[in-house]
Amino acid sequence: MNKSILTAVIAGLIGYGSAFAQLTASQAFVEAPRSVLPLLDRNARLDMLDYFNGGLTTKTSNKLNGSSAVTAVSPEQIAVQMTDASTCNMAVIPAANDTLVAVITTIATPAPDSKMTVYSSDFARDLTSSVFSKPTLRDWVTDGSSLATVESMVPFLLISYSYNPATLTLTLTNNTRSFLSEDVYSIVEPYLKKEILYKWNGKKFARQ
Asked: Which of 75, 90, 160, 178 is the most core-located residue (most Cβ within 10 A)?
């Protein structure tokens, strides 16, 4: 009896680990709580996937009385046009003891600006601070001695994020040029990096 129970427990643990390994971006998209995707309930997300997989361009109503649509799907990542001015990319990322889910939301005005949140596979934990360090303005400046000049002329940075599951790389692109005047940008351009790269090493996104 005890041996049978032990065997069942081991089998359950193996199945539990396999479930993590098999998590797809589409599954994460459907199962995410409303706190993560407040504009879309579960049924709406299922409809969106059905439309995409069926080759249809039909859009789904969201909670802002607008429309949303899935625009790309792979086992590792799903892209969603949430509103006319915002997108959401959800990617599953392999880790030692779990499959993490990275949610990148991007607002398109006045230039693309992103935020990334990284969750455990069940969305119970926000792990962002332990796996990703967002670059500061100083990190975007090519020469530390130019920081004061940049700070005085650039009120804020607009940075878009793009994750490539094939290479496990996260690219942060500086979109400051899109909203600064040409005169101002020509002054700060030599001091600003165009992009910053990170690579997932199995534990965190490490800056390259």
From this structure: 90
Band of pLDDT at residue 9, cut at 50, 70 and 90? very low
Assign 117 to helix, strand or coil: strand
Cβ-contact 9, 77 below 8 angstroms: no
- Contacts of 149 by beta carbon, 8 Å cutoff, 6+ apart: 187, 188, 191
Q: What angle do CA 36, 117, 203 make, to 5 degrees?
A: 130
Query: Which H or E run contains 13?
Result: helix 2-21
What is the rounded average pLDDT for all residues in the chain?
91
Looking at residue 109, what DSSP letter applies? Answer: S
83 close to 62: Cβ distance less than 8 angstroms: yes
Please give the distance of CA 150 from its chain centroid, rounded to a whole number: 28
Pair 9, 15: CB distance under 8 Å: no
For the stretch 130-153, pLDDT in tens is 999 999 999 999 988 899 999 999
Question: What predicted TM-score, i.e. pTM, was given to this entire model?
Answer: 0.87
